[in-house]
Amino acid sequence: MRRWLGGAIALGAIGCASTSPRPAFDGVAAAVEARSGHRVAWDAGTDEDAQVERAVRAMLARELSPDDAVQIALLRNPTLLATYEDLSIAQADLVQAGLLKNPVFGVAGVPSEHDTLSPAVIGSVAVDFLDVLTLPARKTIAGAQLAAVQARVGDAVLDLAARVRAAYFEVQAAEQSVAMHRTIADAAEASGELARRQRDAGNANELDAANQVALAEQAQLDLARAEGDVAAARERLTRLLGVWGGETRWRVAERLPELPAADGSLEHLESLAMTQRLDVTAARREVEVLARTLSFVRSTRFTGPLQAQVELDPLNDGRLALGPGIALALPLFDQGQATVARVQASLRQSQHRLDAVALAARSEVRAARDRVVLARRVVERYRVTLVPMRERIVTLSQEQYDAMLLGAYQLIAAKQGAVRAYGEYIDAVRDYWIARSDLERAVGGRLGTTTTRDPR
């Protein structure tokens, strides 16, 4: 009995495995930092948490850069913090897979007139022996599942980073667009006022004056819409950052970053994505989990529960009778065929999903790469040709206006055309940075940058 109790204590030590998801989270943090350069933190009630909060407040107090915005979101976004709990669940499943089922104790009353047994109770204990034999396989499967969850959580982190970066550029472009629309509205208002004065003085007809006033009103409406776009873009980024209250008064740089001098090699990005994207890694892990599960259910399909029992019987002469026993489920009806078929189908399904994820990843890389190349061409055309040409038209129009060879309306129209061209340039730069962010998301990691010069 002492030997049995010693064995039970040794087996019970298996239940001491930690349910803390910290090691799994540290693995996710390392993968994210290697791909994005950003840190992630999970509130654990330590001094480090206070340091993280101070760092977030410091970033919010200054002008945010795109990297600042991403870092704040990775530390504060509540949806991401909820996703981290998947690690806790998977870690708990891993610990559960390493635990043995509790032994079953039983007692039974004994009638006093029994010939051999004293009037007492019979005690028994039963342990599922198969549970002991399959413990290593269960732990292996649960460990593979934890690895898949780590990859999925890491992919969620990188996805949020890409969305924050795109939202940041949307805010910058919207705010620059407001400044541009405000300039256009001021010029249109001046043109409209001039038209009204000339009409009142009899130097312009009613139609010309009405056209100028209408253009001024349209410019004011465009400005109001642009201001609404800024408010909407700021709220989208605020939600992603996970800030509220006074923290929503964050600021971004007034101008979009200039384009890199070169995008570097855009070749072999598909192969890079296959090794770097965590959603592809997660899909591979799922295939591995189901392959191991199939092997497990095949090896145990005919066994079923296998119980080892020990029965303790008190005898009339005062001695105790200790006898072993065994209970085995006979696979007469359920031979595990349905379970095997189900896991086989799930494995085939996961393999097809892996193919689909890999196919989509390659397509996303190609599409994002093409968008980056096209966006760069558009920006360069604006920067090198159209914006300078519009500015040259303004200079020539001013010279002719000073020489009284051109009317005020034509000069104002030339200036409005230059401002609109620069506004379109802003949109083109925004589109480039969003396309680049999408390419980094598709590849699964950051791309290096060196900037060029703004045309102004």
Could you give a short description of this structure?
With 456 residues, the chain is of the alpha+beta class. The protein contains twelve helices and six strands.
CATH architecture designation: Up-down Bundle
Uncertain segments? 1-11, 449-456
Question: What's the pLDDT, averaged over the residues?
Answer: 83
Radius of gyration using CA atoms only: 36 Å
Strand runs, count: 6
The secondary-structure element order is HHHEHHEEHHHEHHEEHH
Number of separate domains: 1
Can you tell me the overall shape?
A: elongated
Strand content: 5-15%
Q: What is the CA-CA span between the terminal residues? A: 90 Å
Output the structural class.
Answer: alpha+beta
Helicity range of the residues? Answer: 55-70%
Largest sheet: 4 strands, antiparallel
Question: How would you describe this structure to a colleague?
Answer:
With 456 residues, this protein is of the alpha+beta class. The chain has one domain (16-443): Outer membrane efflux proteins (OEP). It has helices at 2-12, 22-36, 47-61, 66-76, 78-97, 129-133, 135-201, 206-241, 269-276, 278-300, 337-402, 408-443; strands spanning 63-64, 104-109, 121-128, 251-252, 306-314, 320-328. Strands 2-3-5-6 form a 4-stranded antiparallel β-sheet. A two-stranded parallel sheet has the order 1-4. A hairpin with a 5-residue loop joins β5 (306-314) and β6 (320-328). α11 runs antiparallel to α12. The chain is elongated.
